[in-house]
Fold this protein.
Amino acid sequence: MLKDLFGKKKKYASIPGENAKKDVPEGLMQKCGGCKKIFYQKELIKNLNVCPECGHHHQISAYDRIHILFDEGSFEEWDKDLLSQNPLQFPQYEEKLEKDRIKTGLNEAVVTGEGKIHESRTAIAIMDSRFRMGSMGSVVGEKIARAIERAREEKMPIIIFTASGGARMQEGILSLMQMAKTSIAIQRLHRENGLFISVMTNPTTGGVSASFASIGDYHFAEPGALIGFAGRRIIEQTIREKLPKDFQTAEFQLKHGQVDKVIPRGEMRDTLGTILDIHGFGGETVESSAGV
Ligand SMILES: [Zn+2]
């Protein structure tokens, strides 16, 4: 009991070191994942969770991203209540899902819907890596495919923000099927000249990087995002070679033509708004032409 008393005393942030994470009171201070400096969480949130010192982009929730991107009050969510089943009776899968639902306030690892960016109406899917590492199970794939289909039917563009560790192993082959399903939906959209903007955030790996994320009309990425299929260690062991230090970062992919532009979070809304406008999705343009 005496030990408990002393244990609770540490409410200040100590000098960063090996155990710095333990010493940072949760919900007040946050250690930057890039420069390891400690900041008031409020300060980081105000800066869109981007480190003011080193520019490291911390992960943000799907709803925070919606808040940053869309014109105020314009977002309408789709398919919020689709829930994952446990088709393979995988042990403890339901418990894990429930735990993540409580932790994140989300029903699944993706939020889909529509809204307006600079007055341009667009469909959107935003993955959230806090939920089962953003892995793509049947519900994630279904929600994304439905959003793409709806964008196609309603002649809207679609923007997909990816953040994923890959396929959801608890759903086995059903999870892998989502790669084909989402890719086919994009192909249908493209056949009807639809616009798909893929924005890869940290991390975009595995089945998501190997399906819809890589078949956009535009491929954007957030600075420093990890983008790749298999992990560094697996590749190094397979080819028996050391890989460059910046391998699989957004900047590396930009250099090698896999990404068209690396866009800092603070510039994302304006850049997307401009592109939607260039493609003729600007709200005002549509209305004025309808009036003629
Ligand atoms: Zn930093």
